[in-house]
């Protein structure tokens, strides 16, 4: 983690970009509101933002600004005002780099984060005002955004993924032996990408190290993966005792553990240990989904698209059953009433980052436009809220309501009638506001 500390120091000493400042008040007039939950737009109304929160909606919003000549007024002209988009499964550093660039011998902290900084800014301009980063050395990036060094979404960081030896987070090259036998950290561990932790004591230390750097939730690898070299998708990872250790340490800090897993066996073990959300789960069966509902565990799913041309043969083979399973698990989980969240999970394919919004509209086979909008705003915000006091940004997100944080989009059109508007952020989003600050304003 010394490298992480070095990068944070470098970022915080770099020049501040010309971040736009929040107006004392911003008044949206003649807008139709999607409030995050109601499956229809409001009648034309006004919304007042004061500082970084929504201060009033309706006639009260207009009357509150009559004595405030400094208010910025945005004429909505009947367009849709909605909450900012939320992606709860991103890897901001890893999605901005190819595997080859990550493994390059001349990799430096500056080069590792330069692309991630730029991608964070582009993500904000795609309308994503908040994300949950579920694995990677993201603390320096978050620190830079929060300090106003460069633009980007709010970040709920997990920090280094926690993995057993030969687990989904074991990124060692064949030439890198185990730290336990040699005392040498692997390159990925030095970068802050992963903790290879075996046994209760190692897991406790890994969790507490991430919490020390500001993790808002913890990510444990509970089963095999498609992008890792050593573990088949079907394997179960971590013993019950190891997993319970992570949950206990997280709960002592008032937060939760989420797990990477696909299979019923791996997910059942995680549920018994007390995890609060599951990432992926495309191979889940009905009994395990019912158990998730009973335990109030959120299923954080993705819509994977068969963009395998740039993948190696081993990853394509491992991905095949996952791609097949997602068409079953989305409608089944919905029918059973399991709490759902949505994310993208892009890894080592920077060429697809610009397609992030299109992965929202890929939900159309299973959800109505109103259900999709609710999922990527209100419902995703409910998962962020599970971090409790470890949340880096206190306040309500995912809704347009009095007192909520002012993360807002002004949309050229009605996404409840045309959900494909979300897939065209450059032309569809006239205004992008995060924390009361206008990062795009073309109204």
TrEMBL record:
UniProt-listed SUPFAM superfamilies: Composite domain of metallo-dependent hydrolases, Metallo-dependent hydrolases
Highest rank taxon of the organism: Bacteria
Protein name, per record: Imidazolonepropionase-like amidohydrolase
One Pfam family per UniProt: Amidohydro_1
Coiled coil location: none
UniProt GO molecular function: hydrolase activity, acting on carbon-nitrogen (but not peptide) bonds
Keywords: Hydrolase, Signal
CDD domains for the chain: Met_dep_hydrolase_A
Cited InterPro entries: Amidohydro-rel (IPR006680), Metal-dep_hydrolase_composite (IPR011059), Metal_Hydrolase (IPR032466), Metallo-dep_Hydrolase (IPR051781), OTAase-like (IPR057744)
Signal peptide: 1-18
